[in-house]
Amino acid sequence: MSDRLQHVRPEERPFAERCLEWAETVAARRAPKLTPFLDPREKWIVRTLIGGRTSVSVSFFGGYDGAERERALIHPDFWWPEPGDFRVAALAVEANRRFVRLTHRDVLGALVSLGLKRDVFGDILLTAASCHVLVAEEIAPYVCQHLTRIHLARVRVEPIPLEALRVPEPETEEETHSVASMRLDALIAAVWRFSRGKAALRIRAGDVKVNWRIADDPDETLGEGDVVSVRGFGRFRVAEVGGPTRKGRLVVRVAKFR
Q1: How far is residue 49's CA from residue 20's CA, in Å, rounded to a whole number?
Q2: I need a surface site. Which of 27, 111, 128, 191 has the fewest CB within 10 A?
Q3: Looking at the domain 172-257, which fold is it?
Q4: Domain 10-85, CATH 3.30.1370.160 — does that match?
Q5: Three-state DSSP string of the chain
Q6: Model confidence pLDDT, tens digit, residues 14-63
């Protein structure tokens, strides 16, 4: 087991060990195991720990192709799941748009205030004309009944088919930065153009997440694919790390989310 967990950070070990337990149970009982919604880092852990096993496979689905948050279905390798096996439901949230503009933060806050855990909610899809939310099928009726207000606006929530989802195009802006190292504080300072000291203060204050987990070490090394978010500023993904220049600096391309 220790070999399987060597690439997992210490704070992620409880989740990783639970993944291994799920896989062992599926292998022994030959019956599938459906997880809650997972963020991209958790999906990576599941895929890394279970993907290479014999007799057990893992599949993901979050309601539409390219979903960020998805449920994993760990299953015997002789069986392949259908979308309905993931028990993902889509809900349309309707408010009077003349008086309120729904934001991701407002919608998520209202959902969590219902007393439900974050892992029963998938992606929140906002466009100029719609607000669609992916949820675990088992809690959809509860949300439809009890989510009646978001921020200061009354809302109505109704189930819709997955085929009716409106998925917005991701808005990113690519930037290239020259940094001395791939340290977390160095990348944050470069992307948002403030000092490494200020970046370190943000990190130690708990304002920074790497791959959806709180990161409190300014020395942490980032790599391609890592997603960094800073409270009050936004988030970016490390898209590509180029070789060192003649001065020994690294050229890093990032995708900055608008």
Answers
A1: 7
A2: 128
A3: 3.10.290
A4: yes
A5: CCCCCCCCCHHHHHHHHHHHHHHHHHHHHCCCEEEEEECHHHHHHHHHHHCCCCCEEEEEECCCCCCCCEEEEEEECCCCCCHHHHCEEEEEEEECCCCCCCCHHHHHHHHHCCCCCHHHEEEEEECCCCEEEEEEHHHHHHHHHHCCEECCEEEEEEEECHHHCCCCCCCEEEEEEEECCCEHHHHHHHHHCCCHHHHHHHHHCCCEEECCEECCCCCCECCCCCEEEECCCEEEEEEEEEEECCCCCEEEEEEEEC
A6: 999 999 999 999 999 999 999 999 988 899 899 989 877 778 999 999 99
Strand partners, 236: 228, 256
The domain ranges of the chain are: 10-85, 88-164, 172-257
CATH classification of 88-164 is 3.30.70.330, yes or no?
yes
Q: In residues, how long is the chain?
A: 258
